[in-house]
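Our consortium's second objective concerns turning raw sequence data into structural hypotheses that experimental partners can test. To show how far this objective has progressed, the report includes one record in full. It was chosen at random from the queue rather than selected for favorable results. The single chain below, 307 residues long, was entered without modification.
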Amino acid sequence: MIRVLHRLAVCIFLFIGFLTAPLSSPVTAAQMSEIVFTVPDITAFPGEQHKFLDIYLDNPFDSIGGFQFVLQSSRPDLVTFDFTNGGMDTAGTLVSGFEYAASIDSLGDQTMLWFRCIANLPFDTKNTPGFAPQQGGIAVRIPVNISPVPDSSLSLTAALEVIPPFDFSDPWGVSIGVITDTIFDTTFFTCLAWLENSCLTWDSTKTEPPEWDSIFVDSVGYGYLDTTRVVKRDGSVTVLTGMTKCDLNLSGSIDISDLVCFVEYLFGSFNSEVCPFLQCDTDNSGMLDISDLAFLVNYLFDGGPPP
């Protein structure tokens, strides 16, 4: 009896503690997510070729040994995927060193890209485990091509949507963020002709009839992504018209003042109010660096081609 009263007192204490405990702040879906897959919003100029799109990935809890995704352009007249050099760049990305990586022109018209990668191929003597939990890494870089003469009567933004197949696995091949469920498939059998205790002819149906003689139940397992655990964020490409690449101060022309803006951005105190248009990626590398500065100097002083 004493033991029972002791347990009852503990339960009452825990219940009162739950009621009086302060409520914690709500946790966002992104904070609870095992994976956040982000396609960014970027800008480009008419006619740009091999413009890189950096795909970002957060996996704060699980190591990743493989994944796949499909990107679809909503405006093939404006933005298509560039497959000339394999349709991807893995140098310095999270999948650098993976044993298998491929970008596939799914429809054959450069409007859809199917990317697949596996860190460690089966039956291989090497051991490539994938990448450990991290946040803010570039998973892979995908090149796109921009139409040289976009139709200005339409919106100049192409949505880049992530569509299935879209999934991730750990280094042991176990899916991440997948919910498994079971579907029961029932078949009812009715005997149409008996010979003593044996049925000569059966009639089967998936809908339960008023009378039936036997039943067969089969189960089928299937899985689907839990969108609170695996979050995808679609991106876009907006084509800039009426502006000149490397006109950093939006003066309407490229001159020495733009060169000053660029030098200050790379080496000094950059003023975004004086130079609001930070677009001078002349080699489409995905970043502004010394090679772009050299290109601009060559154009301004040595008769080189315009950016």
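The partners drew two points from this record. The domain at 243-307 is CATH 1.10.1330.10 (Type 1 dockerin domain). The two ends are 88 Å apart (CA to CA). Both points have been shared with the crystallography group to help prioritize constructs.
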